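Journal club prep — side note

Before the paper discussion, L.F. wants everyone to see what a predicted structure for a comparable chain looks like in token form. Sequence:
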Amino acid sequence: MSTPTEIAISGIGLFSALPVSIGIRPTGGATGLRFIHSPTSRIVPALISHQRQAGGPLGGRNTVLGVGDFSIATVEHLLSALAGLGLWHADINIDANELPILDGSAAGFASALAGGSFAAAPAREIRLRQPIRVEDEASGAWIAARPSDQLRYRYELLYPAGSGIPVQSFEWTGDAARYASEIAPARTFSLEREALAMKAAGLFPHLTPRDMLVIAPDGRAIDNSLRFPDEPARHKLLDLIGDLALLGGPLIAEVNAHKSSHALTHELCRRIAALQP
């Protein structure tokens, strides 16, 4: 049997603006998903126990993993692609401290994985014995997970009037082909007022609305176009799938998320992990 070829992907980090290259290789064993920092050989398991809170003015807008004082940022899109395609055992070699953002979606990762010699790898399924709900009273956001024999994740996006984004939702029931075609291409986004505030603060000088999706108050994608009418909700679901992957295996449950953030999904993962045998 031939050894699977490492899949190489390069780009720049969203927050760092630094070039980064990764190589994804299936391990062939029950290793789970692991990030390996090539220059130092530091290994960071993709598990909720290694989740770290990002600092700075944009802390919480991505998922960061770490061991000791070493961390790797913006892992959620790759983890989403791996989980969405049912790939649970791989080493991700990385030469920097942040994953490449590519076009802001998981499509580049999913396409590369589908075109490689990867196969869906069995993983320990995570199941619930009781309903779990986490919420943020200040924002009204919440995530509710309840026991089920089938996987079903649903995200509902609700922004204030005048944001340009109407109420929208999207759901996924675990089908890899549907993930690749209907969820992976959905890009990260920001409202125009958020983008202007970030630019005024000197952030993201390497990006323009042509690189990242920016939504105007009238719903237009500035210097860009939506891939789906409900692309923002699909991307939030993409993020949810990636963050739930920090449980180390597929969560077989009914999960409903309302306005939730990375931080709230991390909290849900911690609660679920604490109840696992």
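L.F.'s comment for the group: The helical segments are 76-84, 107-115, 176-183, 192-200, 231-244, 262-275. Keep this in mind when we get to the figures.
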